[in-house]
Structures are given as structure tokens and as C-alpha cells.
Amino acid sequence: MTSPRRTFAIISHPDAGKTTLTEKLLYVGGAIHLAGEVKARGANRRARSDWMKIEQQRGISVTSSVMTFERDGITFNLLDTPGHEDFSEDTYRTLTAVDSAVMVIDAAKGIEPQTRKLFEVCRLRSVPIITFVNKVDREGRPPFELLDEIADVLALDVSPMNWPIGMGGEFEGVMDLATRRISRPEGDSRTFQGTVDEAPLSDRFAEEVELAEAGYAPFDGDAYRHGDLTPVYFGSALKDFGPAELISALAAHAPPPRPQPAEPAPVSPDDGEVTGFVFKVQANMDPQHRDRIAFMRLCSGTFKRGMKLTPTGHGKPIAVHSPILFFAQDREIADEAFPGDIIGIPNHGTLRVGDTLSERADVRFTGLPNFAPEILRRVALKDPTKTKQLRKALDDMAEEGVTQVFYPEIGSNWIIGVVGQLQLDVLISRLETEYKVAAALEPAPFDTARWVSAANPADLKAFTDLNRAAMAKDRDGNPVFLAKSAWEVGYVADRYPAVTFAATRER
Ligand code: G4P
């Protein structure tokens, strides 16, 4: 028997405390022994590869990794999502590979823009969310205001699981609403060191707790797993209030690996044959070898090292001799993996984001989306004899999912699209080092893009004929409408009701 799996990610706005919480979760889970090792490991990894200089310069992590730990007989796979403002499609796609997420909110700030974007992707896939309101050891906004904001902005029922007894200078601990027990801060640093009591609350806090319990929905596991309700924990990652409770909550309530949407039929984790999909490809981990690691989420079957898997659509089976499981401290060679686990498969560019890998030939996972780019740029080649190399580079990177590329119907100015600024730097850096193409990015006359389709081909043709100057094709030849603004998308969509303007496209 294998242990149950919980495959999850942490979503947050930069600075809310994701790194600190990750560290504490790994610490509670026994995967690391000293807080601070997550950052140290990042620094080591950075030394490894050239183009990750960008990471170093900006002090951020471009790459998502996977951390695994075990507690109480459960295996937790924590998928890291890059947390900087300049996040990429990888951040979004990582969320297609998890079964649940923890949303970290800064108690002083509430829901911030990036939290909200990531939340929307979770909603697209009905990924259930546990909310962690962090930094209650500092002055924050009133807990009622925060709960109401989460409920309003995200349109979710909220269910407080515990209650902060004061914040900032007044912080006296956190009360578990089910047991009425209060975890208290100790010593000068006011960290949690294990002291829990049931001392009565002052009138003021007793009243708050009463209002909190009366005012919000009680926790309902099914509503949470359907993505309709979020349990809310208040705490402080830094001072150790909350991490252990979050792990217990994930163990008790978060869904185990779920059936995944696929053709011809959804794939259940109990299906005997091995299937999985690639949600991320990381190139050039080692510039000497030009190798790539494809990150595959295992959806069914027991994977064994050396197994032959076929990428649907490209035919040839590949033998997976050196799969990698990602542990907190090291990468280890995996002999076996189970549904919900992530496997790193080294390859030389054969595996693409969105690929299905399986023992059977007839399955294909669906629903791994491309997201409408939020930044579009025109690519200007410095040496016109390098057109061919540029096209190859742009196609390669589009296939890897690093950037999207659009070939306008009119003119020869290729347009690339990204969801985060950082991808632009990665693109230029890789064009130079990997493809020896010097290029610059210039402002494009467009601001966003939508994939267009229509039930009746004549409607699509009528639309594209009239808007030729704004039409392009993506890497796979799908028609794309390039718009000057989100407002224009709305305007045009109103005028052409028979045409669908999609902000995501399944790969
Ligand atoms: P991120 O990954 O979401 O960007 O956030 P990170 O964990 O790096 O935390 C951002 C800052 O917030 C850090 O401070 C961190 O120490 C602080 N922080 C995280 N959790 C808590 C908490 O529960 N309470 C308090 N008071 N602070 C918290 P920094 O000064 O920017 O970085 P550092 O130099 O301390 O690492």
C-alpha cells in the first residue's frame, strides 16, 4: 500500500510570506532541519546555470520546483509557484498539476492583485483553497474586514477555523475555534513554543469570537472540496503559529489525487496503467548539456524506473531511465512514483508542455491552458540574415511554453506574448546564448490577444476578413485577434456575438 498523497501549491502576492511558510511547512514535515535552508538551496541552484543570472540579479526564483515530505503517513508534494510580480505562465500551469492550494494573505494588506489572478486559475479548475492570513503578530486589518473581503472579492463562503486574540502589540495568541484552546506566544521573540491553554478570554475577545462563529458558515468539507468554501486560518508563519495546523488541515480535508480531464474519458488515479501530463519544461538547467527537465504529474498507475512511456501524438516510446523526484534537500533518483507525484524526466527537447505520457496510446489529457498574454512585444532582429534562426527559436520557446508567438497575417513583424515581464528577459537571454540571435523587443501596437472561433466557419471568416490587420496565427496555426486594449476586446465581442473570444486556449 502506498501512502495517501496531497499535491498542493501555495499561492500569494509577493511578500505575503510564501517562502517563510514553505520553510516552516517543510520543517514541520521533517524535510529540513533548519529554517533558512530553502533560501540556501536556492542560492546553490543559482550558481549552477548561466541564464539563471537573471534570478540572481533580481533576487527571485524563476523556476518552480517540487518539494516532498511525509507526515502522519501522508506524502505531501508541495509545488512551488514563482512568487515575484514578474510571474509567468509556468506559475499558472503549475496550478493545473495540483489537487488543492493554500492561499497566503498578508493580514495588513488583504487580497492583493497576484493572489487574485492565481485564485482565478484555481477557480477555472475547481481547485479547493485553504486560506492562511499571515503576520497576525504584527498590526493588521481587523479579522472581520479580512474575512468579508475574501468572501466578497473571491465570491466564496469563508469559515474561520481559529481566531487571533489581538494582533501586533496586543497579540496574545490564536484560539482554535473547535477546541477553544489558545496557542500562546512566548519569550522576547513572541514565538510559539508549544504552550497551549484554555484560559478564559477577556470580554472583548469573547464577544469577537462569538460574532465570528455566528457570522460565518460552519466548515463543510464537501463545500471546500467543491471550491465553494474556504476554511480560514489566522497565524504567523514567522512565529510558528499556523504551519502545523495547515498540515493537519491538508491531511484531514484536502482532496487526494483527483480524476483528470482527458479524452476519450477522464483518467482516474485508480486506473492501472501509467498516465501523466507535462505541465512544465525547464530548459538549460545545465548549459553544458542543453538538457531539459520535463515535469510530469502522474495521474494513474504505478510508475517504475526504466518504464517505457509514449508521448501521445509523437509516437515513439521513451524509456525513462533516470526520473527525478524532487525532495527538499536534494534531487533523488526515483524508483517508483504514484498518482499525485511529480516526476522530472530529463530529455533533449522531445517533451513539450501539455504532452500526455502513457503506457496506453489512446489517452490525451485536456485542459492544460495557454493564457492570454498580458504583455505583447514586437521582435526586432538586429541581423536580418538570422530570420530562420529567430523563427526556430520563437517556435521552440512557444512549444516549451516559455513565451507565446504570434505571426501577423499582414507584415513580417513577429509578435511575442507573455504574462509576466520576466519572461521577456528570459527570452532575450536565451536568444543570445542558446540561438546566437541578437534581437530587441519593441512596443507592439497591441495590448492583449484572444483566440477566436465560431460555430459557423462563415462567421469566423466574416470577422477575420474585416479585421485582417489585427489577425495573427499562433504557433499551432490557430487564429488570434490582437487587440489594442481589453476594452477593445469587449467592444468587438459585442459587435460579433457569433464569434467566441477566448482568454485561454487548451494546448
Ligand atoms: P514571499 O515569499 O511571499 O515573498 O515572502 P517571504 O516569506 O519572503 O516574507 C516576506 C517578508 O515578510 C520577510 O521579511 C519575512 O520575514 C516577513 N514575514 C513572513 N511571515 C511573517 C510573519 O508571520 N510575521 C512577520 N512579522 N513577518 C513575516 P523581510 O524583512 O522582507 O525578509 P527577511 O530579510 O526577514 O527574510
TrEMBL record:
Database matches in Pfam families: EF-G_D2, GTP_EFTU, RF3_C
Main location: cytoplasm
Residues at which GTP binds: 12-19, 80-84, 134-137
Residue ranges of every copy of the Tr-type G domain listed in the record: 3-258
Keyword check for Protein biosynthesis: yes
Annotated keywords: Cytoplasm, GTP-binding, Nucleotide-binding, Protein biosynthesis
Subcellular location: Cytoplasm
CDD domains: RF3 (cd04169)
UniProt xrefs under PANTHER family: PEPTIDE CHAIN RELEASE FACTOR RF3 (PTHR43556:SF2)
Family the entry assigns: Belongs to the TRAFAC class translation factor GTPase superfamily. Classic translation factor GTPase family. PrfC subfamily.
Function: Increases the formation of ribosomal termination complexes and stimulates activities of RF-1 and RF-2. It binds guanine nucleotides and has strong preference for UGA stop codons. It may interact directly with the ribosome. The stimulation of RF-1 and RF-2 is significantly reduced by GTP and GDP, but not by GMP.
NCBIfam families: prfC, PRK00741.1, small_GTP
Stated name of the protein: Peptide chain release factor 3
Organism in which the protein naturally occurs: Sphingomonas corticis
Gene: prfC
